[in-house]
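Fill in residues.
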């Protein structure tokens, strides 16, 4: 299964089960709740961090579908943009993106 397939399956499950498919702000809140559940599972050493991260992915997939985003295409494009970026480490250890200097 790729991201596009996961997005389709997550959406189909929402439709079949009668879950939220129209309220975008609610979906953002539910996604945030799943991130908090994943953090809590990790922080408390529960064995469910993987399951909670899967919930995060499923809510993210559904949110992408709800907003008309091809998440796989966006992730692929973003990975390519990130790979092409150059960074410089400041004396204090912070990495900053290099900004191309305009030609004179
Ligand atoms: Mg959960």
């Amino acid at each position: 299964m790729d991201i596009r397939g996961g997005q389709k399956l997550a959406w189909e499950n929402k439709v079949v089960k009668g879950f939220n498919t129209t309220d975008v702000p609610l979906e953002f809140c539910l996604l945030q709740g799943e991130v908090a559940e994943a953090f809590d599972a990790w922080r408390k050493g529960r064995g469910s961090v993987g399951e909670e991260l899967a919930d995060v992915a499923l809510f993210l997939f559904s949110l992408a579908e709800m907003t008309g985003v091809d998440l796989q295409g966006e992730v692929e494009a973003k990975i390519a943009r990130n790979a092409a970026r150059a960074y410089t480490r400041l004396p204090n250890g912070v990495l900053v993106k290099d900004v191309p200097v305009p030609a004179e």
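The beta strands are 87-89, 95-97.
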